[in-house]
Design a protein that fits this description.
The protein is an alpha/beta fold. The chain has helices at residues 3-11, 50-53, 61-79, 104-113, 133-145, 162-167, 177-180, 187-203, 215-224, and strands at residues 20-28, 33-42, 86-91, 120-124, 149-155, 172-175, 206-210, 228-230, 238-239. An eight-stranded mixed barrel has the order 1-2-3-4-5-6-7-8. Helix 6 (162-167) links the parallel strand 5 and strand 6 (172-175). The chain is globular.
C-alpha cells in the first residue's frame, strides 16, 4: 500500500465533505437490554448513507474509515451515558492495510473520550470482495486480541456468505434482512436460517436477526432460538441521538434461546 495513504489517514485533513451518524439498537430480548448501538453514517443534516458512501473512492476510503471511527466514538461517549452497550462500527476490510497502524486513531479516540475498548464491536461489511483472505484473518485476529467484538454484517448478502464465514470466524453473525423477511411463511428461509443457527451453535457464534419489522417475524425467530435482534420493529435509527425502544410483544422465550459466547463488557 503506498505510503501516502497512511499519511493521509493520520493527517486529520478534511475530506471535503461533512458527515454524521444515526444510531440503531441491537436488542437482547432475553434480558430486555441493549446489546449494542450501531452507528449508521448519515449526511450532516441526516441525509441517507448513500449521499456519503457515493463520494468514497480509492483516494479517500482510508481517510474516511479512520475519521468515521473517531467521530462515532466521540458521539457514543457523549450519548451512551451509563449504559454498558457496545458501539458497533461498520468497517471496510479493503480500507485497512495494516491492522496495527490503522487502529492508532481509534485507540487514541477511545482513550481521549473514556470509551472502553471492550465495548467496541466492528462489523465487517463485505459488499466489496476481499482480495486477500489471509489479510482479513490478520485483521480479525488483531482486533480480537485487542478485546474488540467482531461481526460479519449482512450475512447471506453480497460476498458475505459461507466462504467468508469459513475464512473468518467472528464473535457475531448478523443475518441479512432478506433471509428473515416473512420467515414464518417461507420453508426455504426457515431451513436456511435453521442451518445457520446450528452452525453458529457449533462454532459458538452469536446470531443477530436484523431487518425485523413485524411481531410475526420476531416471534417465529424467538421460537427458533434467536435472542439478539435489530430492526424497525424495535427502533428506527435516530439521528445524532439514541432512539426510544420497543422490546417486542409478550412472547415467552423458551430454553432454545441462544446467543453464543460474547466477550463480556464489564
Amino acid at each position: 500500500m503506498p505510503r501516502d495513504f497512511c499519511d493521509q489517514c493520520q493527517s486529520g485533513d478534511s475530506l471535503g465533505f461533512e458527515f454524521s451518524f444515526a444510531f440503531q439498537p441491537i436488542v437482547n430480548v432475553m434480558t430486555r437490554s441493549v446489546f449494542a448501538y450501531e452507528a449508521l453514517v448519515r449526511g450532516p443534516e441526516g441525509e441517507g448513507a448513500e449521499t456519503i458512501l457515493s463520494r468514497l473512492d480509492t483516494t479517500n476510503r482510508y481517510q474516511f474509515d479512520q475519521q468515521a471511527r473517531v467521530k462515532a466514538i466521540e458521539m457514543a461517549a457523549r450519548l451512551f451515558g451509563e449504559t454498558d452497550a457496545r458501539l458497533s462500527l461498520n468497517i471496510m476490510p479493503n480500507a485497512i492495510y495494516d491492522p496495527v497502524r490503522c487502529l492508532r486513531a481509534t485507540l487514541r479516540a477511545a482513550k481521549e473520550h473514556g470509551f472502553p475498548l471492550k465495548r467496541l464491536m466492528f462489523e465487517f461489511t463485505e459488499h466489496e470482495r476481499v482480495a486477500d483472505i489471509a489479510h482479513l484473518r490478520r485483521i480479525a485476529r488483531h482486533y480480537s486480541s485487542c478485546g474488540f467484538t467482531t461481526a460479519i454484517d449482512d450475512f447471506g448478502a453480497g460476498f458475505a456468505g459461507l466462504r467468508f464465514l469459513a475464512d473468518f470466524v467472528p464473535h457475531v453473525v448478523k443475518l441479512d434482512g432478506h433471509l428473515v423477511h416473512e420467515i414464518q411463511h417461507d420453508r426455504v428461509r426457515q431451513a436456511i436460517v435453521g442451518g445457520i443457527l446450528a452452525t453458529a451453535r457449533d462454532l459458538d457464534i452469536a446470531i443477530v436477526a436484523e431487518g425485523i419489522e413485524t411481531n410475526e417475524e420476531f416471534g417465529f425467530l424467538v421460537d427458533m432460538g434467536v435472542e439478539l435482534f435489530q430492526g424497525f420493529y424495535f427502533a428506527r435509527p435516530a439521528f445524532e441521538r439514541l432512539p426510544e425502544l420497543h422490546f417486542g410483544g409478550p412472547i415467552a422465550i423458551g430454553v432454545n434461546a441462544y446467543a453464543g459466547t460474547i466477550p463480556a463488557t464489564n
